Amino acid sequence: MEDAANSDSTAKRTADNLKPYRFQPGQSGNPSGRPKCVVLSRAYRSQLEEQCPVLPGKTWAEAIALALARAALKGNVAAAGELADRCEGKPRMALTVSREEEQADVYGIIQRLTGHGTRALTAGAADDSGAASGEDAAGE
């Protein structure tokens, strides 16, 4: 009995000792947050801001943009797509699913998993709905 009492008091003291170190409401567990820039990205940005020796008066970024625009003008579809994505953002893909398609998918998955045909599944649903309507009629 004494061991149980000692372990309870030890657990309470340990929990009390840790209270100052717990996360406080409204305080982040990572106050610095995720680093905004990685070393490699910083090196790329630095290089792109430097003057391009091939095209005097232009930065590497401007030279690459010019080369990409020229490739698009010559009919390079990938270059034209890259320019459009960078300037206007990638287009969103709309996806719509009708209720019948969704239900057919569920029945197909159940059939593959259980080995039962969809007729047995739909017959069970029809029986349930018929029983429910019969109960309503009896209850009236």
How would you portray this structure in words?
There is one protein chain. This protein is an all-alpha fold and 140 residues long. Helices cover 66% and strands 0% of the residues. It contains six helices and no strands. It is flat. Residues 127-140 have low confidence and may be disordered.
- Can you tell me the residue ranges where pLDDT is under 50 for at least 5 consecutive residues? 127-140
Give the overall silhouette. Answer: flat
Q: What is the succession of H and E elements?
A: HHHHHH
- Overall mean pLDDT stands at 75
Please give the radius of gyration in angstroms.
Answer: 33 Å
Main sheet specs: none
Termini separation: 64 Å
Helix content: 55-70%
Backbone structural class: mainly alpha
Helical run tally? 6
Total strands: the figure is 0
| Strand fraction | under 5%
Write a brief structural summary.
With 140 residues, the protein is an all-alpha fold.
List strands and helices in order, with pairings.
Elements (H helix, E strand, L loop, with lengths): L1 H17 L20 H11 L10 H14 L3 H12 L10 H16 L3 H22 L1
Helix pairs in contact: 3-4
List keywords for this structure.
140 residues; mainly alpha; 6 helices; 66% helix; 0% strand
